[in-house]
Write a structure and sequence with these properties.
This protein has 161 residues and is an alpha+beta fold. It has one domain: Aminopeptidase (3-Layer(aba) Sandwich). Helix 1 (42-50) crosses helix 3 (73-88). A hairpin with a 4-residue loop joins strand 1 (27-28) and strand 2 (33-36). It has four helices and six strands, in the order E-E-H-H-H-E-E-E-H-E.
């Protein structure tokens, strides 16, 4: 999934979060599991978002930038590699959302520096259309996770109704 909005650092590598901050490895709930997104998720990620473009575009916080738009699987893999590099360099953190049983990709969560100076971070999330019922539970879980386990005090994250 392409992230055109917010791929920047604040000063340089590692400045988005404090240097001693231990990046959470993920989040587990009975409904979903978050783990760092990487190229190993390419096929499942590509299937998830390409079958849910209209649903994602209607998700609070979207549309923005130029995504979602069709890409080839190879272009998607390159995008996932960029997200993994951002994660390694502490510039931004993208987590795939997995079904806890099947391990199918059912969505994505992005945590990047905010372009809006009123916020430290900008979070976005989406779920595939077949799992639309998990959008609000995911939002609640991620909002709580960000408040408890992350070093941010002001996070822009479009509310769910």
């Amino acid at each position: 999934m392409g992230l055109d909005d917010g791929r920047r650092t604040i000063g340089g590598v590692g400045d988005f979060v404090p240097p001693d901050f231990v990046i959470p490895g993920g989040l587990e709930t009975p409904d979903f599991v978050l783990e760092p997104l990487g190229p190993e998720h390419n096929d499942r990620d590509y299937d998830a978002w390409t079958n849910s473009i209209e649903h994602i575009a209607a998700t609070p916080g979207f549309p923005w930038g130029t995504w979602p738009h069709l890409m080839t699987p190879d272009e998607n893999r390159a995008d996932l590699e960029q997200h993994a590099e951002d994660f390694r360099n502490r510039k931004g953190f993208t987590y795939t959302v997995l079904d806890p049983g099947s391990r199918d990709v059912i969505g994505c969560v992005y945590i990047y520096p905010s372009r809006d100076t009123d916020y430290e971070a900008h979070a976005l999330s989406w779920v595939r259309q077949s799992h639309a019922h998990l959008d609000t539970p995911l939002w609640h879980a991620v909002k709580e996770w960000l408040a408890v386990d992350w070093p941010f005090t002001n996070i822009k994250y479009a509310p769910r109704t």
